[in-house]
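Sequence only, no structure available. Ideas?
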Amino acid sequence: MKRRISSNTNLIAFSRDGNRSMDEIIPIMAECGFKDFDLNLCEMMRPASPLLEIGFGKDYIKRLIKIKEEYGLNYYSCHLPYQKSGEESPLTELSLKWAEELSVKIAVIHPLYDTFDNNLRYFERLLKNTPESIILAVENMEDETEFSASPSLKRLALSFKGRMGVCLDTGHLNMRGGDFKTFINDLKGLIIQTHINDNDSLRDQHLLPTMGTTDWKSVVNSLESSGYSGYLNYEAMYFMKALPRVCEREVTSLSYKIGKWLLSLLD
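Reply:
I predicted one. Tokens follow.
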């Protein structure tokens, strides 16, 4: 495993004082230690998002590229807008266009809330329009009626070997009562991204590590022994809704320190 952490840009996107966009958040996170980022293109799901229009979207992308160059950052991953139950999102192809312009290499995507065969057909169509430079990472979900088990994720990823891997969401697996060591070993060689977050095992709370019930030593050592070579990447943000914006730098610095602590758990 790379001895570094990264974060989705939504880490401090929410607060009791209102929401923030990526171009506002990334400089703060960079100044607090983060250099590697998973871009939250789920911003496109907000009706007022500038990314929804080609003209405004290009200006926004230019701002993000300028920030990247100014701070010496790495936009290696993104989270695509997720689909509603059984539907294909019209935002997905546009978000892949923005991802290519931002030189993103991994695009995390939720599976459809549908059958395996329908997911297979959906991803087959989607990959025809996905730039060759981008690999999709399908995420394990939290409900037993969704794609949450390692066999179905493995089967799907292997159906598109070389174009698709798996994103391990620790919060979702914790809610399923999953054995991290077994789950990660089942997907050995297929996990290409992580969503590191915690919860009480009942709700998808997206807390920082140590704020819930996850066995973090098991998580990091299972990833290490599986040969995972990516980042420990935060997708922790909802806890920030309880806090005022004036806390965002302290929260970001604390998040970075907790990430360093996670790396110290490696045997």
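The chain has one domain: 5-264.
Hope that gets you unstuck.
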